[in-house]
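[DERIVE STRUCTURE TOKENS]
===
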Amino acid sequence: MNTAILIIVAIAVFMAARWAKQKQNQAREMQESLKKSEELSRQQAEQLKDYNDRDRQLVQNANDALFIFGQKDGTLIEVNRQAEELLGYTQGEVTHLTFKVLFSREHRQRLLRMISAIIKKGHAETSGIKFRRKDGSQFIGEIKARRGRIGNRQIVYGNFRDIT
């Protein structure tokens, strides 16, 4: 009987050791998988940062003035350096303006028709529009714009330039 008990105990110890080894292996595999996931996440975050930096460089250093404004409220969201130079506003100032501030009263109706066309067709362009700079001076420009999205927000984006 002692021999049978010893065999049962030996089997139980062997099974417990085997189970513990399996759990250690599973834990090691999970740690390795977690390390791989963390590395992949780090690489993806780095790649996303690189894409954002590249896009920022392209937008800020473009030859034409670029803009993004909210389709719903007409508030300017962002402009690039060329737009800042043409209009005389800084990026911080622009985000508090609506498109109405930037255009002469006599051309607002044309601008509203253009925005309507963008909403219906997805894109539009017009030329001979009077822009108003921060200092009150004006220039004649052309605009090309498209409808788009940033997250859940509907936007209109495009470019404009002085054709005076």
Notes: The chain has a mean pLDDT of 88. The CA atoms of residues 104 and 130 lie 6 Å apart. The chain has five helices and five strands. Residues 2-60 form the longest helix (59 residues).
